[in-house]
Structures are given as structure tokens and as C-alpha cells.
Write a structure and sequence with these properties.
about 30% helix; alpha/beta
């Protein structure tokens, strides 16, 4: 089982749905190495200074002599830096966008140096291939986990850590910044806050601002954690973690990141167990309930509830560049390839259209394409092979 999701949301979803992330792409396999980037000191947009900030990162391809061929991939809500390739040939599945990143693929690693990093407050604290600084990390000043003493962080903070990583490699301008869902938010943030560093931008299944509907839905995502008594107002390190609440939170995310077409076609109204009809007892489940619950419970074991809540807050706070949508899109200098899915239940079509219309009215160079499928939001991770031609053409302009 591999990770997902999206949107604010992506890879765990896939795992939860039991799907391959490759989209069927066949090409030379990349074997990649996870590295760690460290900042002795980092000041958040809220003004709090953190010591010893660490994030994991990986890269594919080779940086050219003038360092002009770098592409940054930003990950989704529950993902990490593993965008392509495998850490070992025996790995069950490659990174989540392997269908479009690699030798000879749309984002050709024979031509480009592609890098991706874990964000601050990354969800996957139990994954040995993820490195992040967040509430579960040890505060150097106390020797104890930060818990809720960790400062609120923003998508802008995620991007500023990435910027420090990029600049540490001597890269002054990125040929492309791209990413799905929360990765799209980071892409918009890059294009608005650091426009001179972004040659082209490719936000996928994401809008340039979190609207009221998304803010409210993100609150629904968080709710199961907050009512789990083991959460204990965030003070659970060294005790029983609130994994029951976290599992249900991940179930909610997975369901919204998919679509009714997928759920109905995959599960229908079948019972989880033929011998336990849902009408016979409250505890008896439908198959769709059982599959989502089991996946959420498995994922919760390698995730952290406080990190989930901090990611929710960062997504709720998101407005590209920290300004209104109209002002944000006016700051974008880079051509934009906007890739979305009309059945998306997370970043809904009206949200996407507000962003697209704003970009166009602001005089932006915007190309908009739509993915097809039955997975809704998740198609922006698992169905990217459909966009291969558009991505190639965009990069070659």
C-alpha cells in the first residue's frame, strides 16, 4: 500500500483505493535517494523563529552548468517529496507523479533537474523516508515535543523553506514550479511571492485562494481528531495517540478526494461481510465503509494528528501571496498551465473558474486543460498521463 492525498489532499488516497500511481507509464526506472536539508534558524511568517529546521528532499536528473534547468515539484496535503522513481527496485510503487516525471516522460529528467521536498508539519511522521519539523519534533529549548507550542505555519512558510533549499543549490530561477492540490497552492505562492524566480507555473487541482466552503470542509476534516479524548488538547506525546480520530479524519479526506462515480461503481450497496447485513445491527458495515475505515486506520499508524491539524490550518489560511485573489493573480508573471478535474469535490469548478478568470482578466498567459475520469480530485494525481502532451508543449514554448 502506498500513500495518498490530496487537497488539500493525494497518495494515501491511492493506497486507500488500492491503485497504482504510475498511470500505466512504462519507461526507464529511476532509483532515487532521500536527502535532508537543514536550516539552523528559520523565522515563520508569523514572526516565530525556529531552530534546526529539517526537511527531506530528493531529486531526479542532473543540474546543468548554469543551473537553468531546475524544476520544483510541490506535494499534496498528505504526501511527501516522493514524486517519482523508487528508493529501491523492490519498492511496490514509484512516486505519485511517476507517470509524468522521468527519462523521456513529459517532465524529462534527461533534460531537467527535478527536485521536491517535504513540507514543514508533514503528515508522515512515522515514515522513515519523511523528514519534517513540526509539533511532533523535539523543541531544542525544552528537550520535549513542541506539541501545540509549535507556531502556526502557512503555505508561505512551506515555500520559504523550499526557497532556501533551492538557493542552497545555487539555483536562482526555476524553469517550472508545479504540484497537485496543496502542491498547487504552493505553486501559486511561488508565482506570486517570488515571481522573478518562476519561469513557468503548473498548478494542478488547486485554486489560488481557499474560499469559505473549503475552509469549512477542512474543519470537518479536523473534527474527528478534536473530539478524540486521547488528543488531550494536543498533549499526547508519550501517551496513547488519538489514532481513532485521526483514522476517521483520513477517511473523510479520502472520500472527498474521490467522487460518487468511483464509490458507486466500486462498492455499490454491498455489505462488508455477507454474513453481517447492515440492516441486522448498528455495527454491521457496508463495504465502502469498511474499506475506507481500514485504510484510514492503517494510515493513521504512520501519521501524526497534530501535524494533520497544522496542515488543515495552513490550507485554511491560504491566499496566494497573502493578498486578495485579484491582487495575487496580478503579481504572477509566469505563463500558467492550469490542470483541473471538473468533478473535483475539494477544489470545486467554481473555485477553479474564479482563479482562471482572475488570471485572464489580469492579463495573464493561461492555458487551461481538464482531466477526465471517475476519481474527481484524485485524478490530479493518478490520471496525469492524460496531460502529458499539454505538459510537453507548455515546457517547450
Amino acid at each position: 500500500m502506498k500513500h495518498w492525498i490530496a487537497a488539500a489532499t493525494g497518495a494515501a488516497l491511492m493506497a486507500m483505493a488500492g491503485m497504482s500511481m504510475t498511470g500505466g507509464a512504462e519507461a526507464q526506472e529511476l532509483i532515487v535517494e532521500k536527502k535532508i536539508f537543514e536550516l539552523p534558524s528559520f523565522t515563520t511568517q508569523g514572526g516565530r523563529t525556529l531552530k534546526n529546521v529539517r526537511v527531506g528532499w530528493e531529486s531526479y536528473g542532473t543540474l546543468n552548468a548554469d543551473k537553468s534547468n531546475a524544476i520544483l515539484i510541490c506535494h499534496f496535503f498528505s504526501g511527501n517529496s516522493h514524486a517519482a522513481g523508487k528508493y529501491a527496485a523492490a519498492d511496490a510503487a514509484p512516486g505519485y507523479w511517476d507517470a509524468i516525471i522521468g527519462p523521456g516522460k513529459a517532465i524529462d529528467t534527461n533534460k531537467y533537474f527535478v527536485l521536491s521536498s517535504d513540507t514543514l508539519v508533514n503528515l508522515n511522521t512515522g515514515d522513515p523516508k519523511t523528514t519534517t519539523t513540526g509539533p511532533a519534533s523535539t523543541d531544542p529549548d525544552t528537550g520535549k515535543p513542541y506539541a501545540l507550542d509549535f507556531p502556526v505555519v502557512t503555505v508561505g512558510d512551506f515555500v520559504n523553506v523550499q526557497k532556501a533549499l533551492v538557493e542552497s543549490l545555487g539555483i536562482r530561477k526555476l524553469a517550472l514550479v508545479a504540484g497537485p492540490s496543496m502542491g498547487a497552492l504552493q505553486t501559486y505562492e511561488w508565482a506570486t511571492s517570488h515571481p522573478d524566480m518562476v519561469a513557468k507555473a503548473m498548478p494542478v487541482i488547486g485554486a489560488a485562494e481557499a474560499d469559505a466552503q473549503l475552509i469549512a470542509w477542512l474543519d470537518v476534516w479536523a473534527a474527528p481528531i478534536l473530539v478524540d479524548p486521547n488528543w488531550n488538547k494536543g498533549d499526547y506525546y508519550g501517551r496513547t495517540p488519538p489514532n481513532a480520530g485521526l483514522a476517521k479524519a483520513l477517511t473523510v479526506v479520502t472520500l472527498q478526494a474521490n467522487h460518487a462515480e468511483w464509490a458507486n461503481a466500486t462498492f455499490g450497496r454491498r455489505a462488508a461481510k455477507e454474513s453481517e447485513a447492515p440492516a441486522k445491527a448498528l455495527a454491521n458495515k457496508f463495504q465502502v465503509q469498511s474499506v475506507l475505515d481500514n485504510a484510514g486506520e492503517a494510515r493513521a499508524k504512520v501519521s501524526d494528528a497534530n501535524h494533520f491539524l497544522y496542515l488543515v490550518k495552513a490550507n485554511q489560511l491560504f491566499a496566494a501571496g497573502g493578498v486578495s485573489l485579484a491582487d495575487a493573480v496580478g503579481r504572477i508573471k509566469a505563463p500558467v498551465l492550469l490542470i483541473t478535474q471538473p468533478k473535483d469535490l475539494v477544489f470545486t469548478p467554481d473555485m477553479i473558474e474564479r482563479t482562471a478568470d482572475g488570471l485572464k482578466k489580469g492579463g495573464g498567459n493561461v492555458t487551461q486543460i481538464f482531466l477526465q475520469g471517475t476519481r474527481g480530485h484524485l485524478d490530479g494525481v493518478i490520471s496525469m498521463k492524460q496531460a502529458e502532451g499539454a505538459i510537453r508543449a507548455f515546457l517547450e514554448r
